[in-house]
Design brief:
Radius of gyration of chain A: 18 Å
Shape of chain A: globular
Distance between the termini of chain A: 17 Å
Strand order of the largest sheet of chain B: 1-8-7-2-5-3-4
Structural class of chain A: mainly alpha
Number of helices of chain B: 13
Helix content of chain B: 40-55%
Shape of chain B: globular
Oligomer: heterodimer
Radius of gyration of chain B: 25 Å
Order of helices and strands of chain B: HHHHHHHEEHEHEHEEEHEHEH
Largest interface: A-B, 59 and 49 residues
Largest sheet of chain A: none
């Protein structure tokens, strides 16, 4: 019956706030901490893949397996840092950076044709064939001035997304 | 387009009994590609899917259904604190022992009459059943008394006649005790371990209760058959089903299993709403055992609740069992002031079927292919 928010001191909150570049307010962090404790059912200090998948809305997401690799085993600070890309205050570059990391599964800082193809495979499942996916991707890459062999870097991503409004915001419920 | 069709049939085959979440969720996925020419930017933009995932991590309606919501503490106040301390002393030092005593007396009376009746009246089934029914009602009354249950029953008492099924929303096993003290229902329930299981298999068997194991698919068929036979019998106790299949925190209702609505009988809805002024009656079976839950109730001031016996409903012509179940859920939710969520309560025990993800993938693939054709 303990009140979860009472376990966070002001120092903790400030530390977390700094870690996520002040993208969340104190109230939001307290809220996120309650949610974190709720998902971390065994109070291990991190949320396991299994616990993430116990949220059906998350388990149903086509990218859930890919995201799990990024969020599995995060402590609270890193959990908040991950979510900070979804804050309304986060910059477009920050948001694009997260999208880039989703594509860049091996973390080498550049994205190959196959990296994109794999995300497309997650998104379309059995409803598109491999040939169709390759065809679509080669076509749009060519139109954007890239080839099958070219690697995309974060800067390329920022250029591709440009200033066209990227809507990637999640409101933290505060009760 | 052969593959999608195949996938659909194969996945729908193995969960016939499962309510179909799609039937309840608003149609249309949030993954929407803009019409017109497909550009690299559009293809790379996975932000809607990511936003959905992050939204689910931050908050989701499913977990909310099973969250215990302790009432706001009001006692941390210099003036009220001494009073609250007195309350604690009275609740734990006086009320609790008295309640244990009441319950013990109840059990002694119950067992002292139940065992002889059960053994001696072997020949006269009708009389024996009648007495046993009364005794089960009696012990339930003792249970309710042991938490100073303040229960207000609204509407006409249930009658005993064939071809009717009672359905209620489910918050805790005490739902059953509260309903049972008025009418001897035969209930369909999950088989529990420990002393509760012992009660189930010995005493409650005599009121015609049916037990099953949630995880056993075979049990499901047996239960369905037993249920059908039971409903037809004229002299049987009315059947009570908690169609949610799991305890919900009394703020939400999850989807109703359609089993209770396919019996070709009248469905009588019962709405139960607990007042959380003294204690939260939600049994969070993951966090506490039933014994701990009972102790919590027995050390509180009182369990306050309202029970409404609502108007019996019949399947309307042209209505599917799922629509019927939804209509009854509506009636119960409105009466008890609960919010409806489009989730299957069994997701507490298993993962959602791949079907739901496939649906999203299909809409994505279709929009990409469409814009490819448009050129």
């Amino acid at each position: 019956m303990g009140n979860a928010s009472s376990m966070l001191t002001q120092y903790d909150i400030e530390e977390v706030k700094q870690h996520c570049d002040n993208l969340f307010s104190q109230q939001e962090i307290v809220s996120l901490y309650q949610r974190f404790c709720q998902l971390d059912r065994n109070a291990k200090g991190f949320i396991s893949a299994d616990e993430f998948l116990s949220v059906p809305e998350f388990a149903m997401n086509p990218l859930s397996q890919r995201l799990l690799k990024m969020v599995d085993g995060l402590n609270f600070k890193d959990f908040v840092a991950f979510l900070s890309a979804f804050s309304a205050k986060a910059s477009v570059e920050h948001k694009i950076g997260l999208i880039f990391r989703v594509y860049d599964s091996d973390g080498n800082g550049k994205i190959s044709f196959n990296d994109i193809l794999e995300v497309l495979r997650d998104l379309s499942g059995a409803f598109m064939s491999d040939e169709e996916r390759e065809k679509v991707l080669s076509k749009v890459l060519k139109e954007a001035g890239y080839t099958r062999e070219s690697y995309l870097t974060l800067d390329d991503f920022i250029k591709v997304f440009g200033n066209s409004g990227l809507k990637m915001e999640v409101e933290i419920p505060i009760d | 387009m052969d593959t999608p069709g195949n996938l659909k049939t194969s996945s729908s085959e193995f969960d016939l009994d499962r309510p179909n979440i799609e039937d309840y969720l608003p149609s249309g996925s949030s993954i929407q590609e803009p019409h017109g020419k497909l550009r690299l930017r559009d293809l790379l933009d996975i932000s809607p899917t990511l936003t959905e995932a992050a939204g689910a991590i931050v908050d989701d309606s499913f977990t909310r259904c099973f969250k215990s919501n302790p009432p706001e503490p009001w006692n941390w106040n210099v003036y009220l604190f001494p009073l609250w301390c007195c309350g604690v002393v009275i609740r734990y030092g006086i009320l609790f022992p008295v309640r244990v005593l009441v319950l013990a007396i109840g059990w002694i009376i119950f067992l002292a009459s139940y065992i002889p009746v059960h053994i001696l009246l072997k020949g006269q089934d009708k009389l024996r059943k009648k007495i046993e029914r009364c005794l089960v009602e009696l012990i339930c009354m003792f249970f309710v008394a042991s938490w100073t249950g303040v229960v207000k029953y609204h509407g006409p008492r249930p009658s005993m006649r064939p071809k009717q099924v009672f359905v209620a929303n489910h918050t805790s096993m005490i739902d059953f005790i509260i309903l049972e003290q008025m009418t001897p229902f035969a209930v369909i329930m999950q088989k529990h371990p420990g002393w509760v299981g012992l009660l189930q298999s010995t005493i409650l068997e005599s009121v015609g209760c049916i037990w099953f194991n949630r995880s056993e698919a075979k049990d499901r068929e047996i239960v369905a058959k037993k249920l059908r036979d039971h409903v037809r019998g004229a002299d049987n106790n009315p059947v009570l089903i908690f169609p949610e299949g799991t305890c919900v925190n009394n703020h939400y209702t999850v989807m109703f299993k359609k089993g209770a609505f396919e019996l070709d009988s009248t469905v009588c809805p019962i709405a139960i709403k607990y007042n959380k002024i003294f204690v939260d009656a939600f049994w969070n079976s993951r966090k506490q055992s039933f014994t701990m839950h009972l102790l919590q109730l027995m050390t509180s001031w009182a369990v306050v609740c309202d029970v409404w016996y609502l108007e019996p409903q019949n399947l309307r012509p042209g209505e599917t069992p799922i629509e019927f179940a939804e209509r009854v859920r509506d009636i119960i939710s409105v009466r008890a002031g609960l919010k409806k969520v489009p989730w299957d309560g069994y997701l507490k025990y298993s993962r959602p079927s791949p079907k739901h993800r496939e649906r999203k993938q299909q809409s994505f693939a279709e929009s990409v292919l469409r814009s490819l054709e448009e050129k």
